[in-house]
Amino acid sequence: MIYTTQKALTFETFLAQYGDNPRYELADGELVDMEPTGLHETVSGKLATQIGIAITAEKLPWFIPRSCLIRPFADVATARRPDIVVLDETALSNEPLWQREPVITLGRSIKIVVEVVSTNWETDYARKVEEYALFGIPEYWIVDYLGLGGVAFIGKPKQPTVTICQLIEEDYIQQQFRLGEAIAQRGVSRIVSPLLKNLQIRLDDILLR
C-alpha cells in the first residue's frame, strides 16, 4: 500500500476522480494506492464465490456488489474499498447516494466486509477494526493468507490466519482460524461465520502453504 504525496482530497473530489478505480481508496484525505497482486485477487475471488453460494443457499436478501465504496464518517475524508462487501438489499432504499453512486454511508446496509491482507496489514488489523466497529458492521473478516500480520495479531510462529470479528454491542470479538486449527464439520476443517451458518470454506482452499 502506498500513500501518494499530494494535497489532501475531499471525499467529493476523490469520488469524482477515483470513484470507479478499484485500485484506490481514501484515508484522512490521502490517496491510497492499494497495489493488488494476482495472488491477492485469487484469494478474494475464491472467497467471494463461496460467500455468494452461502447467501444463495440460505435465501438471504443479500448480495456482493461488483464495486462499492464505504464512507464510514460524514465529517472525515475517508472512503474504504473492501475486497468483499456483503450488502443487505432491503436497507439500500435508505442510502442517500446509492441511486447514483455505489457508495454506502449507513452501517446497517452492510452485513459483512472482508479485507484480504497485503503489505498494509497494520491498517487491516488496527485502524479498520476500529472504523468498521464504529460504523456498526456486524462481521469483519481479516484474511491474512501469507501470514504478514504482526505477532501481536496472529501469534508466533506467524502463519496464514483468518480472523473473524463479530460485533458485540460496540466492539469486535475475534476468533482466529489457522491451518490445522479450524473447526471441523463432517471431518472438514472450515471457517465459521456467525452470520452465514451454512458457509463451507476450507482453509486449505484459500490459504497458501
UniProtKB/TrEMBL annotation:
What positions does the domain Putative restriction endonuclease occupy?
11-185
GO terms assigned for molecular function: endonuclease activity
Q: Domain of life here? A: Bacteria
Concerning InterPro entries, the annotation shows: Nuclease_put_TT1808, Restrct_endonuc-II-like, Uma2
Recite the UniProt keywords alphabetically: Endonuclease, Hydrolase, Nuclease
Alphabetical list of PANTHER family matching this protein: SLL0198 PROTEIN-RELATED, SLL0888 PROTEIN
Q: What is this protein called?
A: Uma2 family endonuclease
